[in-house]
Amino acid sequence: MTIDEDTENTSDEQLKLQASGWLDELLDANPNEADHVRHKRDEYFLDWVVKSPIALSAFLQTYKAYMAPYKIHWKLRIRIQLLLQHAAMRREPMRRSIKLTSVAAAVLTFACALILAGDTRRVLPVLTQTYSTPVGERQTVDLEDGTRLMLNTHSKVVVVFDARSRRIQLIYGEILITVQHEARPFVVESHDLRIIDLATQYAVYDKGNTIRVTVFEGRVRLADAGHRQAQLSATPTTDSLDTTLGQGDQVEVSTADDTITNHRSLRSEEMVRATAWTDGLVTFQGEALPEMVDEFNRYNTHRLVIGDPELAKLHPGGIYRPTDLDDLLNRLRTFGIEAVLDPKDPTRILLIRRGEQPGAADTAPPSSR
Length: 369
Hints:
Layout lengths: L11 H16 L7 H15 L3 H15 L6 H16 L7 H20 L10 E6 L6 E4 L5 E4 L4 E6 L4 E13 L7 E5 L2 E14 L3 E15 H8 L9 E4 L3 E6 L5 E6 L2 H7 L7 E3 L4 H9 L5 E4 L11 E3 L4 H9 L3 E6 L2 E9 L4 H5 L7
Parallel strand pairs: 5-6, 13-16
Antiparallel strand pairs: 1-4, 2-3, 3-5, 4-5, 5-7, 6-7, 7-8, 8-9, 8-10, 10-11, 12-14, 15-16
Helix pairs in contact: 1-3, 2-4, 3-5, 4-5
């Protein structure tokens, strides 16, 4: 959308049309679009919305009207709320200081109206932070409540704390959480799955088709969006997910239908292996080569590809630093495996049998996430 430079003199009807257009553009945005594309659009929107409290009011009314009959995807809802919060805090030149006060007041008024209406899920957050890691890096964050959050390679979360609750939205990747307990509930959300803390240290890994939850201490409760709606309904459904996990439990939940596809109890050594990434390590004991390849591909921009189906039967095992591909490839040579760059794609490393031609390996189906 283009920005109206004279927002103050724009008619109410024109502002409503502009607000509707901005909401449509924000809702239609691709969640996986490039950062620079999203940043450019967000800046245009913020420039428009902070020019006048009338513009913000028009957008808030349009947004509130849309939320009632339609379900907005949680990722988009968080993004819009973040943008509105940024609009309230954005510093303009002194000549706009009066307008900024009006903008902040309008946001707070809207939040209060939602509280009075009983819709606390849509209230603008009091404290919102976004944390992310690039491929191959990790990050440890101590949150304001004392909770420790560790992000594995290529992970992103949005932390939303308010007076009533503490929530973490796992956008992608893997996190380990050691929760500081207090009166406010602590919930991690990934896709439609909600992991509710009951005195815990646990990990959540969004694998795409499934979400893996591993409990190391205490307990967590798993619930899906259907269970949350059932609690509010006069005729609750019986097929929604609602289960409790204890120490050593590991489950995988399908993101397609929120069903548990795998539930196992980890031995103590398996629990140690499951947290090895927090020390910059990955361990393999019994896993086949395709599983090792998939794990290493999480940590590196060069992707390993198995070029010979026979190699998938190997179980090299061992303890590795996942960003050290040279060490892995040197060890694989002891199993008769050579590594060559893909002539068609220099970001791919083909794993082939010693003496095999790269052209033959390139025709085999790759193993990757």
